[in-house]
Design brief:
- With 298 residues, the chain is mostly beta strands.
- It folds into 2 domains: 93 residues, Immunoglobulins (Immunoglobulin-like); 160 residues, no CATH class.
- Helices cover 8% and strands 46% of the residues.
- It has 1 helix and 21 strands.
- The strands form 5 sheets. Strands 8, 12, 13, 15, 18, 19 and 20 form a 7-stranded antiparallel beta sheet that branches. Strands 9-10-11-16-17 form a 5-stranded antiparallel beta sheet, with no helix packed on it.
- Strand 18 and strand 19 form a beta hairpin.
């Protein structure tokens, strides 16, 4: 009988121990989840991609997860700029939307359980700029070449050729005439030239075109010469101007409704055929904003 009682006591205490152990496991301490923010990728003007990785659920069911973003640091789920990506642990991907172009944003992943909401590391990125540059491929070689930069039905610039003869020989001018208030970048006036045309300035590729000028440069509304070919009575041929060496870029100002838009024209002059070609052109559609010579997009 005593042996039986001893065994019974042992079984009882064993049962109590097992119960206490099981109860302890059933009441684990719940803590905030642990989440990491995934690097921002696929950044465009109004959208981007990010996400997160939940490495620990805090001993509780994940009730929600996603990312939140704002122009201010430490964005939270109180914002409307957030995503909701379900209740699973592990890796998730989210899409940021309705971004403002060329804007700096702060983004964090988040995960919520019964203990509250935890946030991942904060990342900073900048959305892409809007493309405000209007670019056109042209290729015309007729003379004259008339150009309507902003396609408003009005001529803005005219590329022309003019052959003049005098007692020294003949002189072929290839020039540009701005129409109305539009302007081109030129060197000083040369009085002995046809229409007193100065030699137009060729821009280095990627140089900035704006209102600023270097020494002996002017923005003019009068005609200017791209190239002048002189054929003297003795048969000698001489070229003047920056377009005697094929493709060059000319800085222009296209004006309308009181606003100024900076742009460029790429023009080719072929010495063999004496043919002038408007290769392509572009302008910045935001007034008074500079553009790079040869720039086709942001």
């Amino acid at each position: 009988m005593k042996t039986f009682e001893k065994i019974s006591y042992k079984l009882f205490f064993l049962a109590v121990f097992i119960c206490l152990f099981e109860c302890q496991n059933d009441h684990q301490i719940v803590s905030l989840p642990v989440v990491e923010t995934i690097e921002v990728s696929n950044i465009l003007q109004t959208t981007a991609s990010s996400g997160g990785t939940i490495t620990n659920n805090g001993n509780a069911i994940i009730m929600d997860k996603g990312i939140c973003w704002d122009v201010q640091p430490q964005p939270t789920i109180s914002l409307t700029t957030k995503t909701s990506n379900g209740q699973d642990v592990g890796v998730f991907i989210s899409e940021l939307s309705n971004l403002i172009p060329n804007q700096t944003y702060h983004v964090r992943a988040y995960a919520t359980n019964s203990a509250g909401t935890a946030y991942g590391n904060e990342l900073i990125f900048q959305s892409m700029k809007s493309n405000t540059i209007i670019y056109k491929n042209d290729g015309r070689s007729v003379s004259p070449i008339t150009l309507d930069m902003n396609e408003d039905g009005l001529e803005d610039f005219r590329i022309f050729t003019e052959l003049i003869a005098d007692d020294q020989g003949d002189h072929l001018y290839v020039g540009i005439k701005p129409i109305g208030p539009n302007q081109i970048k030129s060197g000083p006036v040369i009085n002995e030239n046809f229409l007193n045309m100065g030699l137009l300035i060729s821009e280095n590729l990627d140089s900035t075109i704006d209102e600023n000028l270097e020494a002996n440069q002017n923005w003019i509304s009068d005609p200017g010469a791209l190239v002048k070919r002189n054929t003297f009575t003795n048969g000698e041929i001489q070229y003047e101007g920056n377009w005697s060496e094929n493709n060059q870029i000319l800085g222009i100002q296209n004006k309308g409704d009181g606003f100024t838009y900076f742009g460029w024209l790429r023009i080719n002059f072929d010495k063999e055929t004496e043919k002038v070609t408007l290769v392509d052109y572009a302008y910045e559609s935001i007034s008074n904003q500079p553009i790079k010579a040869g720039q086709k997009s942001q």
